[in-house]
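Forwarding the complex inputs:
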Amino acid sequence: MKDDVTSREDRVANLKGMGCERKRVEDARFTQGKGNYVDDIKLDGMLAGDFVRSPYAHARVVSIDTEAALQVPGVLAVLTAKDLEPLGLHWMPTLAGDKQMVLADGKVLFQGQEVAFVVAEDRFAAADGVEAVEVEYEELPVIVDPFEALKTDVVLREDLDPNADGAHGPRKHPNHIFTWEAGEKEATEQVLDAAEVVAEENIYYHRTHPCPLETCGCVASMDKVNGKLTLYGTFQAPHAIRTVVSLISGIEEHNIRVVSPDIGGGFGNKVGAYPGYVCSVVASIVTGKPVKWIEDRMDNLMTTAFARDYHMHGKISATKEGKITGLWCHTTADHGGFDACADPTKFPAGFMNICTGSYDIPTAYLAVDGVYTNKAPGGVAYRCSFRVTEAAYFIERMIEVLAIELGMDAAELRRINFIKKEQFPYHSALGWEYDSGDYHTAWDKALKAVDYDGLRKEQAERVEAFKRGETRKLMGIGLTHFTEIVGAGPVKNCDILGLGMFDSCEIRIHPTGSAIARLGTISQGQGHATTFAQILATEIGLPADSITIEEGDTDTAPYGLGTYGSRSTPVAGAATAMAGRKIRAKAQMIAAYLLEVHDDDVEFDVDRFVIKGAPERFKTMKEIAFAAYNQAIPGIEPGLEAVSYYDPPNMTYPFGAYICVMEIDVDTGEHEIRQFYALDDCGTRINPMIIEGQVHGGLTEALAIAMGQEIAYDEMGNCKTGTLMDFFLPTAWETPNYTTDHTVTPSPHHPIGAKGVGESPNVGGVPAFSNAVHDAFRPFGLRQSHMPHDHWRIWKTANDLGLHD
Amino acid sequence: MSKKMHIKLNVNGKDEEFLAEPRELLIYTLRERLNLTGPHIGCETSHCGACTVTLNGKSVKSCTMFVAQADGAEVTTIEGMGSPDALHPLQEAFREHHGLQCGYCTPGMITRAAKLLEENPNPTEEEVRFGMAGNLCRCTGYQNIVKSILAAAAEMNGAKEAAE
Amino acid sequence: MIPAAFEYHRPKDIPAVLALLEEHGDDARVMAGGHSLIPMMKLRMADIPHLIDLQDVDGLGGIAIGEDTVRIGAMTTQADLIDHDGLFAAAPILREAAFQIADPQVRYMGTVGGNVANGDPGNDMPGLMQCLDAQFTLVGPDGERRVPARDFYEAAYMTARADEEVLTAVTFPRQAGGYAYEKQKRKIGDYATAAAAVQLVKDGGACAEASIAMTNLSDTPIWSEAAGAALVGTGVDGAAIKDAVTAMLGDIDPSEDNRGPVAFKRHVAGVILTRAIERAWSRA
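Prediction (whole assembly, three chains):
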């Protein structure tokens, strides 16, 4: 027995566990320029790879002449599809069940497509080599419109049998990829036919790009002596990459080590497998030297992983009083030249069937048709769970359109249709089981926080002043109540390439009472090293500062599916808690032994086990850790370690209420965000500081998407937005301050009740900004206009409404 | 390949001499030749500021400068701003106020912010936003970056006053 | 993005620059801050075997404020313009405009000479110099000559400067009256969707002199003599401003790009000019 002068409160604070604003452990190296990103890696004899890319969106490759390139000093090799074909690597599988050319095999399907890979002594020589490769092309008709793609005789994918089924069932046209359906078609149509009010609208969510500040890249290093391949890269899913590399290269998985070092932002861009990875691996095998490939910004924007590009046709029905009775949606999804979406296998349109949103809609139907066009492949979840942002945008626009149709206030329309607290777990018409929610509480809190009624009054006065010619500025109030579906996911219905979407955590407690935990996820800025240690601190009673979190090295980390779709906290966070509980269970037995009582007579108390009813008799977790290594305890193995592979029983359903107040200059199309209020409910909150940071960042990405960011093509398939001059990333000057708030509705099935938050602000932010624009023009008759709401499009809206006359 | 030039630089107080092709961009000199991998490459067209360093007293984007242009210059990178035992107040403030997430823009941000505070030791929030507009961040939404810089300014001014 | 290889030259004086230009002809180009040229070279849209860096050339820097005229050396940066209080007194529109160019880092490198000489219709200084009725000093093998900014621009990237000449300075009269540089852009660092430079002199209640130039609304900057004339003699009321805008719209010829279609740009040009005139008049 020893003195214990520390209060329980102090002991809790000392742990820096869940719920506290723990400062990030990552920051020491990042603020001192000591991060280790993939382009920082320097290996002996390392070579550089660079791509020859197609200037055309659709063309036959008649010939490739590499002679001149091979004469460039420093150039060692130029790989083409012909070189990869004998290895069976000229094509590779995509995550969506399609296949994609690694290097142009006879034709190219989008501008920027990889045609040849130049390997040189350094990046300067590689770039010179790229310039010297001569490719002869024969241009083919270009199809950039997915609706035209389904009508034309021009066949984009000549490698596919037009009569054969695709990976997701029958195809209707050579340029058609799949049809995916959810809900009840006939029943929904009957509801719509019989409805008192039906609102119908076409809603386009434009093509954009995650554009992390660090582009994609890798270093492949084949050690021919030991037969071991090491692949460093910007991988959001390192284990999945290891398995894919093994499957396509034939190298046994134990001989492949994949390492994700620090990653400079991912946002979905770094989930997929890209030709650069395959070519680097082949080049390393061929040359016996490490090969580095790093995208430049144009490569990044033009070729790897676009997002969205959903043409959504919706119908929503209601009673005259505004009770929604049915929802119908048909989406035409432009997937580009290859179907390289990153979705769970059974969900070729991701979780688009969350499109009933926060509302109790009894009958619904969704169909999605995927289509090939001459654009870059991708369709990734850009800071969202798979296609959830498309779904949220769709329903939050449809609600607004319905409110116009009904002549109702959109806040009230939402309120009367929310799923009620007592309806959870709620079974949606499109097949999901929402875990928990309290939408009315969140909504009322949000409306009150911004003085919604006051804003509406001010807006009405503004409209009058505008009509009197006293102002040229309109005011929009953008409302959104979103529900996400994140944390993919249960192995029973979620897999990628057959790999179940569980995740994992392995913990080792060291004798002196510190620990290391390794996870199957990988942080790209989310602060896992900070927050997962907080979860563990609370679970096992050792200070977070004494716990190292390690991710991203497949040789040491347990298998997991990586970080995207807000899955780290819901899945790996749960695994962490569960592994921690295994540690605690063993610690309880050790404590009981040391205290010479029965296991059931001790209980966990913050950082120790105490004898029930006699808390002055205890063993701290630190003491227990040491005992685990220095005492022979009958019936208990030495050591203190645990592993958990967590297969979540359900997804989690974070939600939130966002309100944006925007000023719009009808003459220039410029906007100003006057106020943005974001209430998030992500269940149990692990680190409020990090949550707030995630919300700020996600809202800013949403601002960009809604107000100007797009990947645009001309009719020849030329990408018009290939640099940061034209691809809109807001600076500190264009970005407003945000007000954050929260409610807490824990997930009932998650070990610590956490739901995930990183993507909520993007999912909810885009409709909030867009609805603000629409709302400003609602008094003048606007129903729908398309994003991005950049200056000229807003101006055009005003112009079309006659506001410049 | 073109003729190599004899280049002299002073980087973080240390004289460096080497032969380089004139087309070598300063960012590659720093990162690959001198192993100063703090400054990063983000956009390559002088929009993002991840490569920001201080050159002869100016904040510059080192991806848009040939090493030949920099010949004879004094350069400071994030690595020259503080040491693990004596962090620059900006380095402290960014950690304290969660002014970074993935960390990729951070060295450029802090290097630029240091110059901004040198020129304007007591900026308003608006001046910070305008003065940092050459640096893009994809993670933070800037709110906490602005907060960090304002806090560092207050800290540095307080330290100055205490010294006087 | 890696540029093609080149030979680098850093001459110390103008004769040395001219000798290099003569020796290498079309293969040579001068570079000031490099923030227009280097990205083009990195994208391999500009192939320059001989790059002549002007940073050490004598006599290209400095801002001289004379009794009646202002002379700005070609290598003066946008940051220098902003910092110079004497210049602010003599021609305050320069500071207002420079703040709207690019971002802080780029303003440390970007120069007046580079901005006016390369003929990019997106650059702000050319229109501004036309508004100020500046003269550009060009030095070539045959000596020095001056070309009015209003005669300098022929088409996108095509100017009155001969290949073997170097632009060494801009000179313009000390400005009186009100000024405004109004620019609409998508974000910091962008070129103008539309920009207007306006200088107005007020005498009694009427406009005595007016100069108006527009940026990025044609393949050259547009000094709209007619727009200025529409204001002179008026009280710069709504009708006069409308006349000025109408006149300006007759002179510009914008083309569609990512910033928007032609109709939008013409509309915004009118709005921006109206705002610029109103602000300039309020300061006159």
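The two ends of chain C are 48 Å apart (CA to CA).
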